[in-house]
Amino acid sequence: MGMKRVYTGFLCLLTVLILSSRVRLCDGGISSNYVRKYNSNVDMPLNSDVFRVPPGYNAPQQVYITQGDHEGKGVIVSWTTPDEPGSNSVLYWAENSNVKSSAEGFVVSYRYYNYTSGYIHHCTIKDLEFDTKYYYEVGLENTTRKFWFVTPPKPGPDVPYTFGLIGDLGQTYDSNNTLTHYELNPLKGQAMLFVGDLSYADNYPFHNNIRWDTWGRFIERSAAYQPWIWTAGNHELDFVPEIGESKPFVPYKHRFSTPYRVSDSTSPLWYSIKRASAYIIVMSSYSAFGTYTPQWKWLKNELPKVNRSETPWLIILMHCPMYSSYVHHYMEGETMRVMYEPWFVNYKVDVVFAGHVHAYERSERVSNVAYNIINRKCSPVRDESAPVYITIGDGGNQEGLATEMTQPQPRYSAYREASFGHGILDIKNRTHAYFGWHRNDDGYAVEADSLWLFNRYWKLDEPSASHVMR
Ligand SMILES: *[C@@H]1O[C@H](CO)[C@@H](O)[C@H](O)[C@H]1NC(C)=O
Ligand SMILES: *[C@@H]1O[C@H](CO)[C@@H](O)[C@H](O)[C@H]1NC(C)=O
Ligand SMILES: *[C@@H]1O[C@H](CO)[C@@H](O)[C@H](O)[C@H]1NC(C)=O
Ligand SMILES: *[C@@H]1O[C@H](CO)[C@@H](O)[C@H](O)[C@H]1NC(C)=O
Ligand SMILES: *[C@@H]1O[C@H](CO)[C@@H](O)[C@H](O)[C@H]1NC(C)=O
Ligand SMILES: [Fe+2]
């Protein structure tokens, strides 16, 4: 063993001693060895308070909203009535107005194996005022239910806005903790960027879709009041040809609406929206994305349309991460990375959020786009044009945490920890955004990992485009 090896080893040991609660490997960033509380990974029982059916005949349940247009002046309201179709209209009015308007939607239902859904309503409200609180009411006669939402400000480069980030939520006691921590976080999220894997109903025999209904009732307490921006994950596939369910995404597509047409998409599984100073592109990891496929063609046309003078923050959501150093699902996102990483670097995407791996991880700004089959340039390198990749698949579902990490921690990995939690992306203005990751075991205000993001388009004088502040 050479002197240099011994010296390096000594430095490593020293670093470990200095960072007492964190293990820093020489190769990469931080692998937190924080020990979370014991979790049992069981779904909350059907009679749990969070799954309570609202009282009254045919009472609307599973009420949730999402953005309903491209700019933020539209809202899609979805709800389910159990006994009969009832009304498809939503009554709505601005907080400071007595004028009530009504929008008309439509109703769908579906069968899945031997399950029959309730009457699932979707209604798009258009042409609302920006930055305004609205009340809305769904249901008929005796059993109407009233909620509210706040529209975002008009898109513009310096409009501050706060997004929540949750992935792989499920419906365990941990899921409930994650949602509670999101709700009680003093940095109030105004809209949720949900990176896929919603109910985990598919882990039940015959994908018992009753667990889709319970999930809809569980998230209502947040999703009826602020838009949840949907991304489809593998647990939305519900593809089981053995029991006659050979069409993917049937429960998901019936239950969740997205405003895909306004971004010229041909599928609800990939689309874009503008919200305040952010341009958000949602992709589908489980739909064809190779060259010439509809998703590829759409994204190819979409990226040049983003006007960074109007919406400086370009954010991509997908379920399966392109950079993840956990053992579970290792390299599953590799095909997507090979296809799209050059575009993300070229268009200076700010952040790519993903789920799938049930843990948290944040990358350095790296790219791996030089490889051409024969040149051996196949390792990620620092790249100031590259996005930060954040895996936030730690919502708390019944499958538990992905605890096994590849060793040593690769250089591209800046921070990783297997704990349940959520993220907050707090956009301040065209140049600065702050990202914080909150683990459920800490207090509501505590950030276990955080960083300032400097915009990819509005270049700054700072020597490094991202650095960690603790
Ligand atoms: C659906 O089929 C499963 C398995 O045969 C059975 O346990 C369940 O009770 C059935 N559900 C309905 C609604 O018929
Ligand atoms: C609505 O409420 C009225 C008065 O309480 C009651 O008479 C009527 O039966 C209710 N209608 C339904 C559909 O429950
Ligand atoms: C879920 O969390 C909410 C809010 O903290 C709490 O009121 C409720 O009792 C919890 N439900 C379960 C089943 O843990
Ligand atoms: C981009 O947005 C800016 C600011 O809103 C606007 O002035 C400009 O005209 C837009 N550019 C294009 C090509 O639409
Ligand atoms: C943008 O926000 C950052 C962080 O809050 C602040 O330091 C900076 O001065 C702001 N820039 C402008 C132009 O207001
Ligand atoms: Fe997943």
UniProtKB/TrEMBL annotation:
It holds the Pfam family Pur_ac_phosph_N. Keywords: Disulfide bond, Glycoprotein, Hydrolase, Iron, Metal-binding, Secreted, Signal, Zinc. One of its GO terms (cellular component) is extracellular region. Residues 59-154 form the Fibronectin type-III domain. This is Purple acid phosphatase. It is found in: Secreted. Belongs to the metallophosphoesterase superfamily. Purple acid phosphatase family. It comes from Nicotiana attenuata. It comes from the Eukaryota. It catalyses: a phosphate monoester + H2O = an alcohol + phosphate. Homodimer; disulfide-linked. Its cofactor is Zn(2+); Cu(2+); Mg(2+); Fe cation. Residues 1-28 form the signal peptide. Coiled coil: none annotated. It is an enzyme of class 3 (hydrolase). Its EC number is 3.1.3.2. GO terms for molecular function: acid phosphatase activity; metal ion binding.
